[in-house]
Amino acid sequence: MKRQLKQLALFTCITASAVLGSQNAFAGHGPVQGEGGKGCVEQQKHGAHRDRLRKMAAELGLSDQQKNEAQAIFAAGREKNAPLSASLRHERHELQTLVRSGRADEPAIRAQAAKVAALQADCAVQRGAQARQFVALLTPEQAAKFQTLREARHDGRKGPGRDR
């Protein structure tokens, strides 16, 4: 019973974030009033993405037209990738369930891990396509600055003893 309630709560949260995220995406709106100031995890993630885009737009000096085009690219990407992301979450959950069960054999775990890896590859391809679209709308100077910012962000994640 608890598992069904958790699944229902997760489904409700994802559905609400999809509806609210599509309405509020990059519009500068915070969480919906009456929610206690915090939405579900998915909605909070969209807020973080929106804030990062706003910060990146300011750092790159994007024009209003570029901002609108970027918003459209990322909104279309979210919509297109939603089923893929849902499948990836499901397959990751299935993998964790197999691993934690203690009864799964190696071939079953490897098969499930291969499903997860294939979906991760599909997500990477989609992110790459989105990145190409975004970079294509930048001026050469903005694209160079974007690459510099991206590298600095990546280098900042490495930290001591981490080779990402």
TrEMBL record:
Entry annotated with the keyword Ubl conjugation: no
Top-rank taxon: Bacteria
Xref: Pfam families: LTXXQ
Renumbered residue ranges of the record's region Disordered: 145-164
Signal peptide residues on this chain, from the entry's feature table: 1-27
Subcellular location as annotated: Periplasm
Compositionally skewed regions (Basic and acidic residues) per UniProt: 148-164
Keyword Transmembrane among record annotations: no
Key words, A-Z: Periplasm, Signal
Record family assignment: Belongs to the CpxP/Spy family.
Protein name as catalogued: Spy/CpxP family protein refolding chaperone
